[in-house]
Request: fold
Amino acid sequence: MAEARTRQIVIAGAGIAGLTAALAFAVRGYPVRVFERASRLDEVGAGIQLSPNATGILDRLGVLPGLRPAAVRPDAVVLRDASNLAELGRVQLGAAAEWRWKAPYLTAHRADLQSALLAHVAREPGIELVTGATVRDATQHPLGVAVSVEIAGRISQITGMLLIGADGVWSETRRLVGGAAKSRFSGQVAWRRTIRAESPAGSSLAGIGIGGVVTAFLAPGFHMVAYPVRAGAALNLAAFTRGNAMAETWSGRMDTKVLKNAMRRAAPALQKLADDAGEWLVWPLHTVPPAGPWTAPGGIALIGDAAHAMTPFAAQGAAMAIEDAETLAGHVLAQPGSIAEALAAWEKERRKRVEHVTRRGSFNRMAWHAAGPVAMARNAILRMRTPEKLATSLDWLYGWKPPALKL
Ligand SMILES: Cc1cc2nc3c(=O)[nH]c(=O)nc-3n(C[C@H](O)[C@H](O)[C@H](O)COP(=O)(O)OP(=O)(O)OC[C@H]3O[C@@H](n4cnc5c(N)ncnc54)[C@H](O)[C@@H]3O)c2cc1C
Reply:
């Protein structure tokens, strides 16, 4: 009797992309095995903005109720001139976002998002999560994919219908997809810090009116984003400057002179944060051009940062990973007879959207870091735009729904 093709889904990486993919396939009845290189799933102290295009999916997968108590639903995104703290523009969030885009805009500590995803994964009998397990290689054959996984120095062969490479910007699985793009340093670094809302630095920020909202302070060659996390008990700060390539890690260190120099034209209350916020962690921003390819017809798909890591200037990298995961599961279910066709259709559909979002991030960087007459023109345009008009310009991004949610 001919051997049957397995329905097992093998996932490399238990980040936001991998865990969401595990849930998206499990709810559709596929057995899933997730292999994560780290022996413990620790998240560094940083925040994440989750826009409605992502929270709608997390809600459908049942993750949102576990996240909401620790998350914050900010009232607005506010753009301010860093030099004088004047408001330049505002997009209403809160109930207005939920009404407009049919899902909430949330900010959260990454550890809280990870806990909510992991708690849900643990409740799902169809998912096995193995930590301390590195996906090393895979070969495609007519009945599926044979994946080599290294656990405690020994290689095991795991057979799957599909290998999902969700192993981040420095992906090992990317090379398994012929001709895939390479990651490169963007020339920018992110400075990250989570502070207690009640700390002196937190109180001085509250004094400049950032309570309950996402604020982006704009300056030539620099911007800083501040928003509440941990049910409002903490504030996440992320500052973006030019910088040098450094160790590939979430938690590097760099001399704060670089940050202070980038903030030299900011209002004194902001400049003080460079010292008052405590020890900043520095993350080099690497990107992967979205031109792809992201799939191999025998049964390999790259998702999230492994496929198309983008700069965080549109705050959409994790949202794209979540969209990738949900839509990939939908396409595979819709084409049970041909994994090659399912992957080709998924990649075609996703490419257009991911490229659009990547371009939006590049545009934001250019506009937010502008100097001189370009910055003056930006400020004038922003001041003329009503919150309603700014919200309308985001409908394509935040109002997007995967087919399963459009039904
Ligand atoms: C400063 C900053 C701010 C950001 N803010 C936002 C935001 O507000 N909103 C937003 O949507 N996005 C944001 N992003 C982007 C977002 O963080 C990323 O896009 C997202 O975390 C990518 O998730 P991932 O699961 O694809 O990759 P990762 O989170 O990198 O996960 C990959 C996982 O794979 C594991 N792994 C690696 N290699 C292997 C292997 N060979 N075998 C097994 N496991 C392996 C790793 O240990 C890791 O756990 C931001 C990014 C930065 C840098």
About this structure: The CA atoms of residues 43 and 367 lie 31 Å apart. The first strand starts at residue 9 and ends at 12. The chain has 16 helices and 18 strands. The pocket of flavin-adenine dinucleotide is lined by residues 12-18, 35-38, 48-49, 134-135, 166-168, 172, 190, 192, 238, 283, 285, 304-306, 312, 315-319, 321 (CB under 6 Å).
